[in-house]
Amino acid sequence: MKKTLLYWLPVFLWMGIIFYASSQPYEKQDLRPTISANIDLSIIETLFSTVKLHYAGDEISIEALGAAHFLEFFIRKAAHFFTYFVLGFLMYRGLNHYFLNNRLTSLISWFLTILYAISDEVHQGFTPNRSPHIEDVMIDATGGLVGILLALIIYKKIRTKRI
């Protein structure tokens, strides 16, 4: 029981943090005032004025969003990647003790991570001023995969040292 708690409590705590963050309306998570107060946006404008991309049907550029919102977009997407990187790693860590097959552990970990990412985006659809995006699920899935691959490498080294 202790071992189960040791390996699964971090997974469920992290999932709870993700759920809580998704429950917050955009206004409570708006980084633009902090960015504007602490970063010289003229540098961002100079460095990235030519960058234009499309995400979820919107143009992401300084011209379209302004420098603070442009920077916030990338911070938020990095947060998606990192959050699911950690979840993927923790998921692999939890499942590693049930399956001896690394490939099976990796696939199940990734499937569960993606499933949670999808449920998180659906949850955001019910949160005021938040919207679900399949593109966010793809970022989450990529972050989860990288976290799982790191866990796979670490646990392979641990197993190799034991032998």
TrEMBL record:
InterPro entries: Phosphotransbutyrylase, VanZ-like. The chain crosses the membrane at residues 5-23, 73-92, 99-118, 138-155. Pfam families: VanZ. Residues 8-154 form the VanZ-like domain. Keywords: Membrane, Transmembrane, Transmembrane helix. It comes from the Bacteria. Coiled coil: none annotated. NCBIfam families: vanZ_1. This is VanZ family protein. It comes from Fictibacillus norfolkensis.
